[in-house]
Every structure is written in structure tokens, then in C-alpha cells.
Amino acid sequence: MKNVDDLIESANELAGQGLSNGEIADELNVSRETASWLVDRGEGSDTTTQESSSDALEDIHVDWSALGRDSTRLADVGHAMADLLGGEDVDLVVGIEKAGTPLATTVALELDADLAAYAPRKHQWEEGDIDDLSGSFSRNFAEIRGRDCYVIDDTITSGTTMTETIDAITAEGGSPVGCGVLVDKRGVEELEGVPVKSLLQVIRVSREE
């Protein structure tokens, strides 16, 4: 199991490779704010001990690499996600880059649907107002206009990226009819009126002193 120091080291390595804070958040499956905190701690700070981790934002790290690095397991997850999403008649599956795209590929294969890919604006984000940035659909995949679709990602942390993708699909003339994720860290049933289904849902249990 990774602890905070492990995540700080991973964030520092990713930052050294030139990834933005938003991309680091995507790679580590944490919020943008948590990614920034991890990067800050890795930049020559001596506060990388467990005792200093109490000032980090509350978050949950999800490591699903045991699934992602094995094509058979990934195909099994795609089958499960397609089954979970139900019987909507869709002919397009939209994957949110990066991690959502391979999942969407397996779901699309199960449903005999086309595939589209969306790069969210958080991949450009370092700090400041993310609303000043914009995402985009890859031209190498299927078009959106006039099509009913599922939206696939690996995790929901705040719901911001999924909401952005839903809005982008609508703006392109598509109709999102359902969203599927591996893990929902927020516990949402719908976003922008679109149902959200997850294979796993995280529920925080806290006790007030």
C-alpha cells in the first residue's frame, strides 16, 4: 500500500517528466488540489514525513494498476462496466483521457459501439482558474454529433471532469445517456441530469468527538 511519502515521490517523478499538476492528478487518481500539495512537498521540502501529512487535503488515492496492466483483467472490467450501464441503445462510448480511454475501449467492444476520446482541460492545469482552459475531442476517433453515448472514466473525485465532458458532448451535438466509472469517491447518482454508475463507491465514515 502506498503511503503519503510514496505519493510525494511519485508526484515528484511525474513533475520531473514534465506533466502538469492536472495530469499528475489524473495519473495518481487524486484531486488537483491534492496533486499540487504532493508536488509542493516534493520540491526540496523537508516536510515529507507522516507527521507533516496532516495538512494535506482530505482525499483517497485509488491504485487500479493491477487491472490496467493486464489486458485480460481490463477486458473483464469492460464487460462488467458495460453490464452495469444497462440496456441503453447507444452506438458511441466516450473515454476521458488518459485512463478512461482504455476502459472505454473495452466497454465499446462489449457494446459493439464506436469510440471517442476527450482530453479534459485539467491536463493543461498548473494553478489558477481552470475555467480559463478548454478540453478537446480527438480527431482520430469517432464524431460526437447526433449520437447517444456513454461516458467512461476511471474515478470520480469531485465530479468536475465528468461534468465538463458531459457539457462538451452536449455542445458538440451529442446526447450523454449514462456515465460509468471504476470508483466513485464522491458518491453521486447523477451529474447534469445524466445517471452515474460505479463498480465501487467510497463512503467516508467519520466520528465526531
Automatic annotation (TrEMBL):
PANTHER family: OROTATE PHOSPHORIBOSYLTRANSFERASE, PYRE-LIKE PROTEIN. DNA-binding transcriptional regulator that functions as a regulator of central sugar catabolic pathways. InterPro entries: GcfR_halob (IPR053401), GfcR-like (IPR022854), PRTase-like (IPR029057), PRTase_dom (IPR000836). CDD domains: PRTases_typeI. GO terms for molecular function: DNA binding; orotate phosphoribosyltransferase activity. Contains an N-terminal DNA-binding winged helix-turn-helix domain and a C-terminal regulatory domain (or effector binding domain) resembling phosphoribosyltransferase (PRT) domain. The keyword Transferase applies. Residues 64-192 form the Phosphoribosyltransferase domain. Keywords: DNA-binding, Glycosyltransferase, Transcription, Transcription regulation, Transferase. Coiled coil: none annotated. This is Transcriptional regulator GfcR. Gene3D superfamilies: 3.40.50.2020, Homeodomain-like. GO terms for biological process: pyrimidine nucleobase biosynthetic process; regulation of gene expression; UMP biosynthetic process. Belongs to the purine/pyrimidine phosphoribosyltransferase family. GfcR subfamily. It comes from the Archaea.
